[in-house]
Amino acid sequence: MKGEVKLANRLRKFERSIRKSRKKILGEHRKISIKGLLSRASRRGGDIEYNNAKPRVLVVSHDASYTGCSVLVYNIAKKLSDKYNVTILSLGEGALHDAFKSVSVEYWVDKRKHHARGYYLNSLSSLMRKRDYKYAIVNSIESRHVLEALRGYKIPTVSLIHEFASYTKQGREAFSYAFNWSRSIVFPADVVMRNALSITGYNRTHNVYSTGQGKCEVPKLHSLNDGDGSEECERLKSILRPDGGSDQFIVIGSGSVDYRKGVDLFIGVAAKLIKMYGGTHAKFVWLVEGGEAEGDDRYLMSIRDQIDRSGLTDQVIMLPWTSEIECVYQLADLLLLTGRVEPLPNVAIDALSLGTPVMCFDRAAGIADYLEKAALGNSLIADYLDVDDMASKLGVLASDSKFYRSVKNKVREHFSDNFCMDSYLKKIDSVALGQVDPEILSLDIEEILKSNSLREDYFLQASDEINSSRGCVELYLSETKKGYGVRRPEPGFNSTMYLESLQARDFFVQDPYAEFLRRGRPEGKWMQEVISENSPVSDSISDLEGRVALHIHVHYVDVLVEIFKRLQHNSFKPDVFITLSEKNSIDEVRMSASDFGVSLKSVVKTPNRGRDVGPFLTEFLGNGTPYEIIGHLHTKKSLFTGSDKVGKLWSNFLFENLLGGDKGGGMMDRVLTQFLGDDSVGMIYPSDPNIVSWTQNDLIAEEYAERMGFGKLPNEINFPVGTMFWCRTEAIQPFIELNLQWADYPREPIGVDGTILHAFERLLGYVPEKLGYKTLVTNVRGVSR
């Protein structure tokens, strides 16, 4: 008993000590939190005198380091100072403090880089006090945490995002945050923009832009070299071309020594090239940005070891960064970008602007977009991370002086004035000022109302509580700005496609639908022809007998009854083929078909692989087909949505538009009439009210597009959302020729995106048009989802 009392006392004493320690820990945590919230951004001065006649602009940098992003901030502030009183806020320390001060009326630093919500709202209060900023430019995704605070202070923002979302820590969350809190976002290249949209699932709207930044002036730092730079240029010349001749082909790379920059790939290309051509004809020089100390120690050791083991110590040189970088470009023959992700580095812009060719990997570098547009892709773009292909292309340039000169001349022709900082900032300024112009929204509302073309029955969702046309238009304009869940204002119109065509001519544009109406509904790929419940049915539709097949994949037998019912609304009777997942009964399907008078040509069980796509391509079309026109349906429930009601609404939308029903009547007859009357029609599917693009399927889609013999994919597409459609067999022949086997499809369970099935869904809208066929859409009034 005494032992038990002693043990109980010990336990109570132990519990008291835990409670005491816990209070102490919580108290310290509370002190840290309060201290953090009371911290402020500190003012470091500014060398430019404030001008009362100019409005204020705020420019935010993620830090003041001597790197590309911060150098861009210096150039932005310097150029904008002609028109504005520029304040720079740096969220970190760095070597560019003096440079930032020299181009601003005020320079502030908040070095905590706090990620807590609400921190910057408090921290920036001194910076905001008695200052009316026209707008703010927030540079880099790493600066995103100030966006919410700037919204709180009612300051319009333009985010300049240079990073790949797929290569950013917490990429989806980070970029979604930026999309949510920034008024507008500008990416440096289409490939960077597509990656962000893919990772987040956002749509491109008129608040999302893509344009290359201007050529930057690199501020001189006394810590690197003094004087006018002539001594530094002589030093560089003695290293790169010690004999002053042109007998060696000089290839330079640039960046910090880290895995992302692909220094190992740079050395790999050097080894391949020298092995191909032998001798000492080529020299490779890597300029280390930020110093080796900032790189990964283990990666740096492996780089040094790679150079030694490859026997390249005399032909691969690592040099510290220099402020006389233009001397390097003039001495070099080519800049080699081997980064695994290279959005649009300043070094590439600088080199091209001086006429020095730049070579990169496809899909890894933003500069590839610009090289493609200049018809330099075959010469200067290597397959994705393919060292052999890059070495081969480089070898041709290094060994054929005549060909090299032709490439260099083309670079000079296309890029001498392509990257202009004045032009770049004029675009940014137009975007920012467009946000604060109250007349733009009013003009767009009136234009759409005047047209009376926004289809409320189609655009609105069941949960929308809107009771006026003006309210519907205002909702449309509000929703399209958000970028997530963008809907079509009317069937057949794709605002993202039209936006892309507008931005090719004018960087800042108003709402694309309002502009489409304002310009008289111009024809183009952004507006598809619509088949409605009022479209005619041909008297000759019976001529298609024996030429039309309807394939239905059945996973849920209860949904099949609905399909059979809808077939009764049509006069035409297609030959029906059913594939059945293994769990279902063939006899049950045949009995159901008999009840509705549907004659089945075939009922076949298939493996549960590839959802409806596998049974369609591998089973139904695996050995070819004699049918000219094919319909493809499946018993959709979309259980991943978490709501059976949502799944039923979607399947009802698809079936009503493809087969017909109480509202649509015989829609299948109307669809087949289009095929009968126009041989150029290749694909027909419902016009989904939601605008969906590649999302996380672009890379898979690119792979299969290449296998089918097609080039680069467009940024924006229309496709049969839900993978149900009618098509001309020839229009999907490239899919059949892939000869896919069951093992090519993913096993269940599969994700809701990012698989071969989702990629094919999108490619079904792309391939027929690439073959020269037209794509039409259907829409039954009063039916939406």
TrEMBL record:
<feature type="domain" description="Glycosyl transferase family 1">
    <location>
        <begin position="247"/>
        <end position="413"/>
    </location>
</feature>
<dbReference type="InterPro" id="IPR001296">
    <property type="entry name" value="Glyco_trans_1"/>
</dbReference>
<keyword id="KW-0328">Glycosyltransferase</keyword>
<keyword id="KW-0808">Transferase</keyword>
<dbReference type="Pfam" id="PF05045">
    <property type="entry name" value="RgpF"/>
</dbReference>
<dbReference type="Pfam" id="PF00534">
    <property type="entry name" value="Glycos_transf_1"/>
</dbReference>
<protein>
    <submittedName>
        <fullName>Rhamnan synthesis F family protein</fullName>
    </submittedName>
</protein>
<dbReference type="InterPro" id="IPR007739">
    <property type="entry name" value="RgpF"/>
</dbReference>
